[in-house]
């Protein structure tokens, strides 16, 4: 759409120039350009555009006004954030800033928010573009499930000048979104005063671990006097120490009874000579249908992030007709972490169970276990099992990108071209030592586990490897995006004032190669490196037991790593099944063209068009015969039809889109939109792979035959702009999803890939045989979760948003509420869909002082598992309180304090009923003190 009733003019550009400054002003900025809202700059200015006089903008109110003007003048249903929004409100990354937008919710399972839902849709069903192009992203967490959702935690907010969230699509926008399309814009040098230098230095502090880390950023922009050539550079160093402490449970086992022969605890206990469970069944104090938690684990995840990034923009505009921009990005993000899970395992040694207590909804909520600890030995045999999995993970994500844009503007026409490539890789490594303790304990599903004899449980001499010395696993994860786009636009006089047409080719390639190196020597904890007793204050706030808060631990990452690598000759023996099951490659190629007509006059404006997309998916992975899996060897001949195979499927889709905005009054706008959209499954889900957790017999697999998500959408909104920086808006959305991909769990007989590993039978295999889960040959019953085309789903909802600056008082308020009701043809829940969510964010700005508070709440929702075979869980309602304060010392210097998660809110997830615990965590309060400068 070329018609604009009003332009923000200099206020937008002026606010964009201040991305690094909490409170700033620039009286020299006089450009009347508007914030870019297209992916290809195909909309030239119209001669009938009404330009406002130059406006000097400062602070929170200016950024809110800029955001409202972008929203008000858009053809589609759009929300916007300017750079000063991101700098002004409490945020460590772009995702935290998006949380202020109506209809946007965050999943906070892992510190450093990375999963963003829009209008109740799965984060994988959004599309995020930086300056109109994709950014390749390798996964950062070993064992994470890759998804298409953009990981905003890896993108420094300092590089952004602003962003828009398109909740209704236009034909010109790339396909792949069902929730929303997020367009992020970097600062361009010809839009910034020459020799602008801004930046910040500060520290990040987490109160739960008492650790602070430095961060710094700098932005410099220059252009010549003629404004024909310019360059800007943005660089950042960022560090953050995060911790996630709490309790996890790895699934449930049925008690069972007479006639139960597969995986039932009662039969396993009887086989071990223990009649306690059978006696309680006979007495009626427990039931055969009851479920018992397998392992209540004291979970401690600690990570130090160190990120360095550089973004360079070179802009050349020799005349009013031609413009060229080259953008270069380089980023390295170190995300090394240690994850310790200390879990007494009642169902692993049922011979030691002495009592069980039934709770609500058929869940066993407490029990006792007896056993004899073993001193200074790696061959302990006890009726009680407590394991401590100590993972040391090294992760370094390297991301590079180069993108070129060029456009030529003629007399009422424009031709634009975009081309670029970005790559991301992460050679992750994970080392594990799984130490064992055989002493007695009591457990309770609310408080965790308490060792009966803390004096031995807290003595490192009673902990050691027991049959299995651990391993080293490596994953080389790579992703690459490349694209080329050509756009043409032609302006006309009259109601239909512009015609746009374009073609786009985009290729995304993603691959994983995983290896496991076996055979580390068995060691005692003293030999590995004893790190004293833990002091997990976060667990105390959850009301967990003293044994969970304070227990033995290793010396950390280097100690775990060195203990694995210290074995003479280690690093030669590799596990073939791990390689075959977890090595895959997926390439998706989209070829598209679109045609869009923009229309408008003083009363109504909008667009109508259609996009055609041809999609080709090539999925490659290993198909291994059972004989090779049983042998677990690379020395195995593959018959015809087996080995590394590639499957191809193609899809064609027409995607119409229409948007209309009616200026009912100078301050009141009605909007409507209709569209058809497609989105795609996460890349690994389209690969023929099988990734298992052989200890708990769960797995995930892929499905190369998945069809795209497809949805018919209707959107509408009513917006009343009753004052400056003020609006009341009501919007509604309806999505009829014709194909929705769901994860279905089935039991499959599979060869246990760990069966032939040294010590596995002694540590876990014998117990699995006793429980009837595996045969002596290692054929086990796995619960395998794999994606399938799940049929229909519907999402309907509405958002109400309110924003107002209260005169000259300095006070203002932003608030919004979102209702989203989802249903599926199978009766299940839609992942990441909260029925209710709201945000309240008052702010104050007067003279040199600024302050804001933001309270976010969302109701319960279904979330996917983060590790192999982890079942989807229900996440309980979550609240977060953030705040910020700032002081402008003078025109060049300011201070800011951002405070996140002030309530130290608990993240709690469950299976089925709320007392069927899956996991609960706290992550601590985060404080960021920064000094800002601008010259």
Summarize the structure.
By secondary structure, the chain is mainly beta. The chain is 10% helix and 50% strand.
What does this structure look like?
By secondary structure, the protein is mainly beta. It has a single domain (10-247, 301-340, 394-430, 475-515, 579-748, 786-934), classed as Beta Barrel (Maltoporin, Chain A). It contains 14 helices and 46 strands. The protein has a 28-stranded antiparallel β-sheet that branches. The radius of gyration is 29 Å and the shape is globular. It starts with 9 loop residues before the first helix and ends with a strand. The relative contact order is 0.14. The model is unreliable at 1-58 and 865-870 (pLDDT under 50).
CATH superfamily: TonB-dependent receptor, beta-barrel domain
Q: Radius of gyration over alpha carbons?
A: 29 Å
Q: How much helix, percentage-wise, in residues? A: 10-25%
Q: What's the N-to-C terminus distance?
A: 37 Å
SS content category: mainly beta
Secondary structure tally, helices: 14
> pLDDT below 50 for ≥5 consecutive residues: which ranges?
1-58, 865-870
General form: globular
- The level 1 CATH classification is Mainly Beta
Tell me how many strands there are: 46
Share of residues in strands: over 45%
Mean pLDDT: 86
In the CATH scheme, what's the topology name? Maltoporin, Chain A
- Largest sheet composition: 28 strands, antiparallel
> What is the multimeric organization of the chains shown?
single chain
The CATH architecture classification is Beta Barrel
Number of folding domains? 1
